[in-house]
Amino acid sequence: MLRKLFKFHGGVKPQTNKTESTTQPIAQVPLPDRLVIPLHQAVGGHPRPLVAPGDKVFKGQRIGGADGSLSSAVHASTSGIVHDVVPALMPHTSGLTTLSVIIEPDGEDRWGELDKVNYRRTPPDELRDFLRDAGVVGLGGAVFPSYAKLKPGKEGRLKTLVINGAECEPFITCDDLLMRERAADMLKGIVAMRHMLQAEEVLIGIEDNKPEAVAAVQAAIAASGQSGIEAVAIPTRYPAGGAKQLIRVLTGIEVPHGRRSTDFGVQCFNVGTAYSIYEALELGRPLISRVVTVAGNVDRPRNYEVLIGTPMDHVVRQSGARPDSDRYIMGGPMMGVRLPAFGVPVVKATNCILVGSPALFPPPPPEMPCIRCGECAKACPADLAPFEMYWFSRSKNFGKAQEYHLFDCIECGCCSFVCPSHIPLVDYFRFSKSEIWARERDKEASDAARDRFEFKNFRQEREKQEKAEKLAAKAAATREKVAAEGQAGTTSAAAETPDVAAKPAAPSAEDTKRALIAAAMEKARQQKAQVAPKNTEQLSTETQADIAAIEARRAAAATPPTPDA
Amino acid sequence: MLTALLVMTAVALVLGALLGYASLKFKVEGDPLVEKIDAILPQTQCGQCGFPGCRPYATAIASGEADINQCPPGGEEGIRKLADLLGREFKSLSEEHGVEKPKSVAVIDENTCIGCTLCIQACPVDAIVGAAKQLHTVVAGECTGCELCVAPCPVDCIAMEPIVDTLDTWKWRYPVIQIKQAA
Amino acid sequence: MINSPFVRKPASVQQVMLQVLLALVPGIAAYVWFFGAGILVQIALASAAALAGEAAMLAIRGKPKALFLGDLSAIVTAWLIALTFPPIVPWWLTVTATLLAIVVVKQLYGGLGQNPFNPAMAAFCLMIVAYPALMSQWPAAGQLDFSSQLQLIFGGARQVDAITGATPLDALRTALRAATNPDSQLHGLRASQLMDGPAYGMLGGKGGEWVALGFLLGGLWLLQRRIITWHIPGAFCLALAASAGLLWAIRPEGFASPVFHLASGGAMLGAFFILTDPVSGATTLRGKLLFAAGAGVLTFVIRAFGAYPDGVAFATLLMNLCVPLIDMNTQAPVFGHKKD
């Protein structure tokens, strides 16, 4: 039976360049001298380190604990000694650092104790916690913690579970090889996910340029005897592997920006994620390695099973980088991330290390003005008008850019790909998005500061008033006391002229005020004396000099500043 | 002649009544300009402009008592926005009020702090916590970087540290590449 | 630094413009065949003027000359000017018009991609207002040999009235008006009978219909190359034919047939080469349909009721004016926001 497929708007057909890296099976990479495992590898909170320098760790031992409502654990990829826990360069265009655990492997590659779990007998919440602590995240590139997506919608069940084996980016073949070699185990992961989501049907979408993978998955389905799972070959057109585009192709449903796909009865996972769920549940192995394609400017493009934290140049060496290589790209040529250095570690998001050279990826010809030809709009898989958003982004008119649905842009790169004026459209959109986010943050911060400032003023005003009231009450009390004393002496006078009685009280009230001030000053002096450093005898001369300096400054500062200076 | 006069008078009356009604119906409470100016100001509350806080400065700009280039934390961009809003010419930051610095937060050196509470009193946004003779600390998220706490500290234990970019605050750069004149 | 995507389709503005120029060749060939080689002189004049004007403006604006002259957009404008103007206008008129188009309508608005009006059509309108007589003298097919064309283009003497006439469009309109006049000798004749003269061919003007066919062929090739989409030419032709057909059906003695309208004047050139200019045209699919349909109706209205020989240029400019409004109100719903 042929399934009815749907179309998404736009898309492009770049050269796929996939055959070279599929000729060889997935290979292992020898242990590197050092693993650098960033703690923050997934969408959500920053995991906190659970190990300290000098600790001995086993393979699969948790070294970063999930923190916050959305976060995912991180594990040691091999056994060894924790060399350090320091910020290290992360595989990101920004060139920023992130807290990372550096492990020196002991070469034994010994697993710690592994907990397996029977997903059919475990309550869903526990199962999700288990997967969170196993560090399973989306391996398609978005690295969204999988446990958070393994929740069925409101009805408690799901219509369709979509498994993404489309792999539409040129050069990348890691999912292809995974499906060819490990279809049966991947299927076990899919069955577990289907159970957790209570999904009626499972559709595995694979681009039709991977007939071997389609055949392997179909064979595995047949062998497993599962019903309601289907491997569907879909037309090869970038970006068919975008989650939204794939859901559209397989089910006809369009999930709008900012909405959960479960609200529409669909959920989507990558095939690699399915395999790591199998490893976590059935073998108890957390996510410590993944299949990575090494392609581009190398002699032997190939797929490798790579431990998370392995320096990329160590992996690329296995494939033989050519001498004119000038950069590594994480991911494919359409959406890949330009990396700041060769030695950054492989992380969970690394589906491909694309080795670039000026000849392979030449710089674009000079940017020309937009001629509004509309090619970008024709190619946009999100039905946007990129040339309009470009116009507003360029003039920094962000409000207008948002009106044209800037945030529906998935940054797939189709518009830049087709632009005859060679405009880096996606760069403009990334710029606009980060600028809008920054502005929102600034606005929130300044609003908070304004509120706090106004509250402080209000509080000071209130305190002043309270103090004044207290003082007035005290003065009245003193006055009464003085008046009472005076009354005892001159009862007759007071009796004769009641308003005169207040008169002697007035100067005495001033006296008491003066006395109060004197007392306060004395108290302040005492306080000051208390602040003076004590026990200085045993200190080194250096510290004593420091203290002297501090004292001098304090003396200088003691002259009270004028209040409204 | 008389009809013309009558018509004109009637028109004048009707229009006048309309205007009067409109001025009542669409009456604006307060000065909306101050709100708009205040929204542009960075709310650092540093007082470098010569006014005790951002709102007083906004009021002063609105009433013409202060110029638009007295806010160093707002920087050039802030001046540009104010110039746009008020339809004035852009001018560079007035030097007597300070210079534009990278955004930073105050950090208290915990080894030196004597717990005098002077900085707590100076902080315009209550971003410093602590009590007398207790170690003080700055709540970095609330700190506006106004530097008002630096001067009052008797032991000079407060330093301003520039905010470091993280993945959440890192920004993509503006991609315009100037096309060079072909040789 | 370069960010993703790292690969690009080998497309460029230059390539697009080059294909547009190539697509004009069949029409130009027919033009030369029927009306003589004078048009080639005009094309050369306009191209030279366009390049000179563009180069001067780029120098003043401090833009890279080689890059922008090489994009061929000025040449496209120049060719369109030459092809829409009468082939025997004096050289200075062609040059002035081209300079106006390039310097004022294109470069002063910001150059490539920034002009709100189609430069060639703006120049046409300016010239027909400034020099109505010179802009209305068209030779009939085969009427003038090359040397007399050259003389008319470069020579000062102009006794053109004696040797040229109006375009078939213009002539037919005059004749149809006369036909409604009881005093005229043409009274009571129908359009088909009026078109019996030597100036007319099978469908439109003699020779002119073949030129139109040439442009149609070129346009279809552009469609096949996906340089343009069917929306603009389709909607334009349909609207022009429909509005012409409606009045023709009501009063066939007073109006020319829709086929005549399509085959005459600048209809084909306009449909495939002028209205499809992306810079000054609408960009959304619905917008393109509206834009071109509006231009089609306006073209017919100006042709049938106006005083100018053809309506394409004015219709184009009028619709250029509406583009921002059309684009703003015809934005297609984006992914996930469609109403099924």
Overall description:
The complex is a heterotrimer of chains A (565), B (183) and C (340). Chain A has 565 residues and is α/β, with parallel strands linked by helices. Chain A folds into two domains: 19-353, Rossmann fold, CATH 3.40.50.11540; 364-491 and 498-521, no CATH class. Chain A contains 15 helices and 17 strands. Chain A has helices at residues 124-133, 146-149, 174-197, 211-224, 243-251, 271-283, 312-319, 375-379, 386-394, 398-403, 414-418, 425-489, 491-496, 498-531, 541-558; strands at 27-28, 35-38, 48-49, 56-57, 62-65, 74-75, 80-89, 97-105, 158-164, 199-207, 229-234, 266-270, 289-296, 302-307, 327-330, 337-338, 352-356. Chain A has a six-stranded mixed β-sheet, sandwiched between helices. Chain A has a four-stranded antiparallel β-sheet with strand order 2-8-7-4, with no helix packed on it. Chain B has 183 residues and is mostly helical. In chain B, helix 2 (32-40) crosses helix 3 (54-62). Chain B contains five helices and four strands. Chain B folds into two domains: 32-97, 3-methyladenine DNA Glycosylase II, Chain A, domain 3; 102-164, Alpha-Beta Plaits. The mean pLDDT of chain B is 86. In chain B, the strands form two sheets. In chain B, strands 1-4 form a two-stranded antiparallel sheet. In chain B, strands 2-3 form a two-stranded antiparallel sheet. With 340 residues, chain C is mainly α. Chain C has a single domain (13-329), classed as Orthogonal Bundle (Ammonium transporter fold), CATH 1.10.3430. Chain C has helices spanning 13-35, 38-61, 65-69, 73-84, 91-106, 119-130, 146-154, 160-163, 168-179, 191-194, 208-224, 231-250, 258-263, 267-274, 285-305, 312-329. In chain C, helix 1 (13-35) runs antiparallel to helix 11 (208-224). The N and C termini of chain C lie far apart (42 Å). The model of chain C has no long low-confidence stretch (mean pLDDT 88). Chains in contact: A-B, A-C, B-C. At the A-C interface, strand 16, helix 11 and helix 12 of A face helix 1 of C.
